[in-house]
Amino acid sequence: MRLNLPIIDQLAGCQNILIAGMGGGYDVFCGLPIYFELKTQGLHVHLANYSFSEITKLKDGIRLTDTLVGITADIQDVLNYFPERHLTQWFREQLNQEITVWCFEKTGARPLLENYGVLIEHLKIDGILLIDGGIDSLLRGDETEIGTVVEDTISLIAVSEIKGVRIKLLGCIGLGAEKEILHAQVFENISKLTEAGAFLGSCTLVSQMESYQLYEAATTYVQSQPRQESSVINASVLAAVQGKFGNYHTTDKTQGSRLWISPLMPIYWFFDAQAIARRSLLFSALRYTDTLTDALRALLQTRRTLPARKSSKIQLP
What we know:
Helix content is 37%, strand content 15%. It has helices spanning 8-12, 32-40, 83-95, 109-123, 149-161, 183-195, 210-223, 232-241, 273-279, 283-286, 292-305, and strands at 17-21, 45-50, 62-65, 68-71, 101-104, 127-133, 167-173, 199-204, 267-272. The longest helix is centred in the middle third of the chain and has 15 residues, at 109-123. The relative contact order is 0.17.
């Protein structure tokens, strides 16, 4: 069974595609089913991640800048938290493939934009798919709760400002895993994007898909490695594909909280990244930040000036 990607027509014409985790941590894993599907169709695909690992401390790797490093299975330095390296090891051990996961240091928007420019030139990228584990990348900034929107916004700014890349898309998965967000406001945002022609369709993961099976195997392998925290988003997606529902926990990290695992979680939602960037109320405030601290400060200052958005609820947890 194949993953019926609604964005295949846009990506099929690209020579070199970059799938980039935009929110940090395990976000790049959320793009693995798409990576495997595109590879099956003979497309040339690369992986990158806005990384939460301390990559500036690495002594090896393919270093393109101080804050952009290509991670391979040959890296000897072992950081306490390093899911990207363990992912390359899984590819070597289980698929007999040597891949590189390009890691961006968690900086502000200005250095990340520069790093994207370097990587795009290095790999000759002409199509980018940003991947968000969760849906906070769809927030404008005036919502009642905004989750961890700052990292997603930094990545969105960098990609939207890049010149010379023909295709810029954004995909989300894990709807419902971020409990603090009011989903009525998210659905309202999606409706506005749909009205503007920026919603590009959706598809869902099911257990019979080979692309899903490889994703599950890779995620389970990496999360079982020493000192690797589990990903709540990915764990929730896997549980939902396996038919779990409601307050179901697969990791100690979520014990003590109440989850809502549902069939909504394995659905990919695809959008025009440029259109989302144009709707962002945080874009101008974060555009010229250099560090993540700068970006967080700019976010807080901007939030204080935005009119309060009406809090609305729907019959979802």
